[in-house]
Amino acid sequence: MKLILASASPRRRELLKLLGYDFEIVVSKKEEVFNSKLSLLENSLNISRDKAIEVMGLTEGDRIIISSDTMVVKDDKIYGKPKNRNDAYQMLKTLSGTYHEVYTSLTVIKIENKKKTEYQDYTISKVFVDSLNDDEINSYLDTDEPYDKAGAYAVQGIFSKHINKIEGDYMGIMGLPVNKLYNILKEIL
């Protein structure tokens, strides 16, 4: 049974490697669509599922498709990837001295003998950030790290020195809830 990761994220690739499985990467180009009638978590689950469904249509044979979506959320507002330095600055200023949540949704679709079975799960974690002064924010923004990350930071990177506590799933914050994925794969492989 081949495993397919429906993501271009190098972090998700590294996390999936931790499980010891061989896998292929087929990147989903599915546009993320939000439904205002659904909660942020329901939207995250739908986005994860939509990516997996798209990759399912791009692949053939018996296979397992793994997809994930991560949202940085504060006060019911989503902090996506920053558009530019100023946007990243504003995000980090908002996250400074407080906590926010990281929603990570997981979708696993197994196709075997043309029969499809779907599994979904998620993690919600809290990330507590130190109060940051302008010098600390600007020093971080001088690195390449914040610009392709939701919330303008990487929990596992340089920014980790500003994170004073995490409640929840560290791997989920990085982009893939490894334990939940492992338990699903253990059941279906």
Structure explained in plain terms:
This protein is an alpha/beta fold. The protein has six helices and seven strands, in the order βαβαββαββαβαα. It has one domain: Maf protein (Alpha-Beta Complex), CATH 3.90.950.10. Helix content is 33%, strand content 29%. Strand 1, helix 1 and strand 2 form a beta-alpha-beta unit.
Topology (elements, then pairings):
Blueprint: E1 2-5, H1 10-17, E2 24-25, H2 40-58, E3 63-74, E4 77-79, H3 85-95, E5 99-112, E6 115-129, H4 134-141, E7 163-167, H5 170-174, H6 178-188
Parallel strand pairs: 1-2, 1-3
Antiparallel strand pairs: 3-4, 3-5, 5-6, 6-7
Helix pairs in contact: 3-4
Task: Summarize this structure as a short list of keywords or feature phrases.
single chain, 189 residues, alpha/beta, Maf protein, seven-stranded mixed beta sheet, 6 helices, 7 strands, 29% strand, elongated
Brief rundown of the structure:
With 189 residues, the protein is α/β, with parallel strands linked by helices. 33% of the residues lie in helices and 29% in strands.
- The pLDDT mean sits at 96
The secondary-structure class comes to: alpha/beta
If you consult CATH, what is the topology? Answer: Maf protein
Alpha carbon gap, first and last residue:
8 Å
CATH architecture assignment: Alpha-Beta Complex
Order of helices and strands: EHEHEEHEEHEHH
Percent of sequence in beta strands:
25-35%
Count of spatially separate domains? 1
- The radius of gyration computed from the alpha-carbon positions, rounded to a whole number of angstroms, is 17 Å
Main sheet characteristics: 7 strands, mixed
Helix content: 25-40%
Principal-axis shape equals: elongated
Poorly predicted runs: none
Number of strands: 7
Number of helices: 6
The CATH class assignment is Alpha Beta
